[in-house]
Every structure is written in C-alpha cells, then in structure tokens.
8-oxo-dGTP diphosphatase (Sphingorhabdus profundilacus), 136 residues
Amino acid sequence: MEKNPTMLFVVAAALTNEVGEILLQMRPEGRQMAGLWEFPGGKVEQGESPESALARELKEELGIDVAASDLIPLTFASAQNGDRGMILLLYRCTQWIGQPAALDSPELKWLHPCDMDALPMPPADVPLVNFLKKFS
Ligand SMILES: Nc1nc2c([nH]c(=O)n2[C@H]2C[C@H](O)[C@@H](COP(=O)(O)OP(=O)(O)OP(=O)(O)O)O2)c(=O)[nH]1
C-alpha cells in the first residue's frame, strides 16, 4: 500500500440468504454512479482492516451487525475509478444480526446471481457477478 498510495480499496459484501439470493442496493442520487445497483460496502479508510471497514459500512448502510470473522473472502476485481486504480474486494456473508434496511439507498433487492444481468451495475462488478454465477 505504501508503494502505491493512490490505489483505492473498496470492500463489498455478497450478503446471502437461505435460498441463495444476494442483496443489492441502488446507489442514491447525488453520488457517483447514481441509480446503479451495487453490493453494499464502501471505501476502506486509513487505519482500518478491510473486514472492519466492511462491518462498519454494513452497519451504516443496512443497520446490521456483522462479525469480521463471518466475512469470507470470495473474489476481487481491479478497475479504474476516475483517475485512480481501484481494487474491489468481495466477501460472502451468511450470518448477521438485524434485518437489512435501506438506510443509505432508495431500494434494496434480493436476487439470484443469474438474474443480476437484468440490472444496471458498475462496470467493475461484471467479473464479481460472473464469479457468483459460476460458483454460487
Ligand atoms: N459498495 C460498492 N462500491 C462499488 C461497487 N462497484 C463499484 O464500482 N463501486 C465503487 C463505487 C464507488 O466509486 C466506490 C465505493 O465508494 P462509496 O462512495 O460507495 O464509498 P463510501 O460508502 O465509503 O462513501 P463516501 O464516504 O466516500 O461517500 O466503489 C459495489 O459493488 N459496491
């Protein structure tokens, strides 16, 4: 990280329910990529581990409590984010406390990975969705 201080790390969760559906949220108006559907998550802040950043984002965005040990690394994507390189880390999560609520987005949707092609998502998410379609 020190050798590449411009790299942006983003963490995201494939929150998966008992029938294999995964939660997506719509990015709100006024934000970059508004209206696109994304995996809940956000940027890793200075001094945070990826897992504690993701647990923080899931609390802020959905109001749920997740233990860092329940975040299972799944896959990652590398993409350009404006003028910066971005690494997007996707974790599987099947255990949490609370009911996910749309605290930071206009809408939430549970859907199977094979149905995600029907929704507009950020370009960086394409390899993540392809991975989920293959291995979910
Ligand atoms: N959470 C999330 N972000 C994604 C996905 N795909 C993708 O390209 N991104 C991008 C969008 C944003 O440029 C960046 C995440 O930043 P964000 O703005 O949501 O982060 P944040 O919650 O920390 O918000 P902020 O404090 O910077 O406003 O990653 C995804 O599936 N989930």
